[in-house]
Amino acid sequence: MINQPLKIINEPGSQVIYSGGGYTLLQLIIEEVTGITFSKYMDKEVLKPLGMENSSYSDDYNKSNMSKAYGYFGQEVPNYNFTEKAAAGLKTTVSDFSKFVLANMDGYNDQVRGGNVLTNKSVDLMHIPVKSDSGLGIFSKELSDGSTFLYHGGDNRGWHSLYGFIPEKREGIVLFTNSDNGIDLRQDIYNFWLEYETGVMPQQYYAMEKSRNLNAKIVITFTVLLAVYILFFIVKLKHGKKLFVTRKGNISLVKFLIRILIPMILAGVIYFISYKMDILPLQGGLKNAVIIIFAWLLVFFVTGFFTKSKKKAKEGIIA
């Protein structure tokens, strides 16, 4: 897959469009102006001044205690080193990143706002929305109690995160997960934290729960149907109405191949996109839906080796 070249399509400050490519352009500008790599610049100008000693943008930063990323089914996923370092290259810890969050809040523990890295004016530019809910690299929304919540989330394969803070209260939250199952965990903690801060559960939580409950009901329904299907098959097998294909069953070779190949192919596709490549969004209980679909295909594959008994069929006609 070839990405299209980055283009400036609007005058800066006139319209808001989220652009990961824009951060990459910023990374290249920093390297062009300073003459050093982006990772070295960030280490010198941002990370070290903020006391973030366990953070780096370098590909060579590979400590023995670094977390690994996992997919929805517990499989380990590759640890990518992104060329888009400004957008997706930071390696850090919760305690380290908390120092960045604290530097965004005025006077916390006598700390200077901006952490001696940015001026008050620069911090304001980051926080104040322009044209929508977006500031410079950070989003803003008003909470139910009238306070302002500034935040940004991140998602990559196996990694899901969110940080946010309420400047008026000088309180914040940092969430890092190293599993695709962390999407649901992140959203739950985030919503319950907002309820703790405001006394009101966000409406998005109820919408999320409604979706989860619907997915659960669908999975339960198809699980029950599968159990009934298996039970009926066992009864037919016990009464001789089903025979293994090698016992002169009434089925052509072409029909037999279709019956076993289609479930195999579909199961292979599901395995590849949900487990091997881990590219399906399976949060909110959708993982269980994939499991039950896979179970159905497995049962279809097994039952495909059985066919109606010719003898029973003839007896039925004579009767």
TrEMBL record:
Has UniProt tagged this entry with the keyword Transmembrane helix? yes
Q: A Gene Ontology MF term for this entry?
A: carboxypeptidase activity
Pfam family of the protein (one) = Beta-lactamase
Annotated ranges, domain Beta-lactamase-related: 9-187
Task: Tell me where on the tree of life, at the top rank, the source sits.
Answer: Bacteria
- Which InterPro entries does the record cross-reference, listed alphabetically? AmpC-like, Beta-lactam-related, Beta-lactam/transpept-like
Q: Which UniProt keywords apply?
A: Carboxypeptidase, Hydrolase, Membrane, Protease, Transmembrane, Transmembrane helix
Per the database entry, which stretches of residues form a coiled coil?
none
Provide the transmembrane region boundaries: 218-235, 256-274, 286-306
The name this protein carries in UniProt is Beta-lactamase/D-alanine carboxypeptidase
